[in-house]
Sequence to fold (504 residues):
Amino acid sequence: MKNTLKKLMPFALTGIISGATVFGASQYFTSENNGEDFSYFTKTSKNSAFVGMGSAVGDDFVKASKTTVPAVVTIKNYQDRSSQRMPENDMFDFFFGNPFGGNQQRQQQQPPKNMPSGLGSGVIISPDGYIISNNHVVAGANKLEVVLSNKKSYIATLVGTDPNTDISLLKIEEKGLPYLNFANSDMVEVGQWVLAVGNPLGLNSTVTAGIVSAKGRSIDILSQQSRTPIESFIQTDAAINPGNSGGALVNVNGDLIGINTAIQSKTGYYEGYGFAVPSNLARKIVEDIKKFGLVQRGFLGVGSLDLSNEMQVAAYNQREKKNLKAGDGIYVTEITKKSGAEDAGIQVGDIITKIDNTDITGFSDLSLAIGSRRPGDKVNVTYTRNGKVNNVNVTLKDQKGGTSSRSKDDLTVTEKIGSEFEPLSERVKTDYGLESGVIAKNVIEGSEMDKIGVVDNYIVMEINGKPVNSQKDVEKILNNYKGNVQVKYVDSYGRITTRGFKLQ
Fold:
């Protein structure tokens, strides 16, 4: 446990306080819109996104604050505490404490049922009540309450989430709400003034100022909740603390340039650096959720080594007996079968240096350039092979090899419930005294299986009262099924639990 905590502290997602004060993670070294109205997604010019250090800066902060504060909300996450996992199985549980940021140890008695498990922030992005926030702010909730800056309260509907980017989309039933426009985050410059607006440590409508410290930061925090994270954060020194997650990072015009998500800290509180999901990426995610019900993500189809990371390069050289030099670019270590990269002739050993007009200096650049595209999109890839520069057009595909958009109805059973399954060996059946069962694998954070407490390596014995011995058994029972699903499973302590969820 002590070793685990040491690894968890360098970076922290900032949104959930009280029930989950801070979520930590260690740094890893090794079309058509179908009539949808997206008119509120606007772009600002490069000039309008920047302000110099003139005498008018204070006035600009006041104007930006007046624009932003009414559009930033508090999000209260209510959960069924009786079903929460033991601390060893849920990293959020490592950091229970005082609802307003104290360092007291978690009390053993259950808090009142009307007390939220966590508090975070959100940003209204349309006058009809769409709100963007973080995935970790809404994770595990059975009720989400949104409180406006004028103290008016609503129960929100969770429209969708994306653990890969830590973005979520909520909806409240109201009209004529104040909202923020999305700025073009590609135009954000290091050194420009920004404001962070949110509800840190239970303090509503807090505004802090700073500058953009860096762009394209990858801190390997989202790998704790996603197997294919997209990290290319805007870094700022505007003060961000627990409770700020899901809040707004805006320019001096009050335009949204990022969604505050994480801090770099040894204590879980502000120590000088905060990180925000760029607005262009956040915008693409919520557009997908609104239009398709899920995120459409394209993949290049390569295994990669970040040449800008000297420690990764050194470890790779030692492991593979290579002599690669650190520098800019992405070294291709493997090619996925039937991927866009394979179709285009990209090979192991190629070094990717540019996607379209974006220079690829490291993995965060590649992650954003590809991860913000959809299956079927074409990108121009510049790479070097044996010292020669080459260009090739690549059609991106999804993880199933498809090039078309998908809706929830197109998902497989395992995608809908968020887990894959492997058969039990006879030895495990004997050890646990079981006649049937499958082992849960690759359980997705926030998925239906995750919500009922199933994690990797738990044994699922029955679904809807029927024994399962393979993934095909699970798919057969739940294929085209709608309604309540009952899952009987065994945890790592040998305890048998039956819980359920609803498939729409």
The radius of gyration is 23 Å. The longest helix spans residues 279-292.
